[in-house]
Amino acid sequence: MSSEYLLEVNNLKQYFPIRTGWFGTRPLKAVDDVSLDIYPGETLGLVGESGCGKSTLLNIIGGMDQMTSGEVLVEGRDMSNPTEDELTEYRREYVGFIFQAYNLMPNLSAYENVEFIAEISDNAMDSMEALKLVGLEEKANSMPSALSGGQMQRISIARALVKNPKIILADEPTGSVDRKTADYIYDLFVRLNQEKGQTIVIVTHDTTLAKKVKRVVA
Q: Residue 50 to residues 16, 31, 47, 71, 182: CA-CA distances in angstroms?
């Protein structure tokens, strides 16, 4: 099955029950009836107020969370209710996820953090090449504790890139870094898109970053 879209989200809902009394509950609408199409090779910014469901939507797209109802199609393939094997394959081979909190393994060097991801991916690039893309090849042997916050975020980007994913999902990638590093990350995303045709979806509060993407959804 094929599609002009890389990914389609149709009428997606994510509700969580919250207690209203001793016995009562009501649904908290984290994502309420959202539809979204993502095209191959585009950069897309998801912006909005805190708590409006941007990160929840990104987590569902990335196979990190389950939805209450709706439909997710990946190149026309229905991934709304995947098996565990399908979900594992999707997260491992299809999606590169960049977290605001870095999520590096503290007992591994920068290179080993990237190589760990490369070893479980079927289409991985060379780990040192991924470090070169983010300008940190000279930090290959450094432990996370010896890196700045900006450097750790760039290592996390290298971990997403090394898989050669079809789509990169970035959740507030500049939320914990200084302005200089944020500008570097913006320019890196633009270069990855222009030179490699990388599809990138970014959740952000940063208006500077939002101006650099090709399309913004609020």
A: 17, 13, 9, 24, 20
Helix, strand, coil fractions of the chain, as percent rounded to 5: 35, 25, 40
pLDDT tens digit string along 3-22?
689 999 999 999 888 877 77
Under 8 Å between Cβ of 69 and 27? no
Q: Which long-range contacts (CB under 8 A, 24 or more apart) does 134-143 make?
A: 134/158, 134/161, 134/188, 135/184, 136/110, 139/110, 140/109, 140/110, 140/111, 141/109, 141/110, 141/111, 142/109, 142/110, 143/106, 143/107, 143/108, 143/109, 143/110
Number of other CB atoms surrounding residue 4 within 10 Å: 10
Rounded to whole angstroms, the Cα distance separating 179 from 170 reads 17
User: Can you give the pTM of this predicted structure?
Assistant: 0.91
